[in-house]
Amino acid sequence: MTETPRHDGPFEIIAPCATDAPEVSVLWCASIERLCVRDHQGRPDILRAWTENKTPEHLSAAFTDPTLTWRAARHGPSGAIAGVGLLGPEGIIRAVYVHPAFVGQGVGGLLLQILERAAIAAGHDAVTLESTETGHGFYQAHGYVQTGPAVGCFGVPARPMRKALSPTDPQSGRSAS
Ligand SMILES: CC(C)(COP(=O)(O)OP(=O)(O)OC[C@H]1O[C@@H](n2cnc3c(N)ncnc32)[C@H](O)[C@@H]1OP(=O)(O)O)[C@@H](O)C(=O)NCCC(=O)NCCS
After folding, report:
1. Which of 53, 61, 74 is closest to 21 using CA atoms?
2. Ligand 1: residues whose CB is within 6 Å?
3. pLDDT below 70 — which residues of the chain?
């Protein structure tokens, strides 16, 4: 069961396909390199480990994995893909990455809302994730709480976070703010 694709302002939510993989690859790597400086601190070894599997080939294959729910936000006026989000099995949010050119325009919040709705539709009563330092305040602002000490991922600290979801709770699938 999937949620209905939707529009929000100039952004349309899509399920990315193989032809989108090169653009998603570029935006994901740009988001890591330019927005997550607090996490990678410019270290080439960390950047390499973090970005090396974000190739068009890998993404193109991953987009067809039936256990994964991929969503992307397309900016209508320009046609550019502004952000990408990924919900894995077990209600784990695996990614929310926005292109640096579109930060602060509601794309991250929109993708998070869509992934939470997909998790509810899949029968989950909570979502979990491991947050970058960069993303921590964003997730807190959307009702996520840290559940333990940071663990390592690609050489950067990743904070475990959780948010309870309820189909009858007006806050579920919506921003906390
Ligand atoms: C974190 C990220 C996804 C936020 O995306 P965005 O499109 O800029 O966020 P939005 O514009 O949707 O912001 C939504 C809300 O979260 C808040 N917010 C965003 N980033 C925040 C931060 N770092 N700290 C606190 N609040 C934040 C905004 O103020 C906004 O609140 P408002 O609706 O009351 O104005 C984006 O900066 C990004 O891609 N960062 C790099 C990748 C990353 O670290 N992703 C998390 C991986 S675990």
Report:
1. 61
2. 31, 35-36, 96-98, 103-109, 131-132, 134-135, 137-138, 141, 175, 177
3. 1-8, 168-177
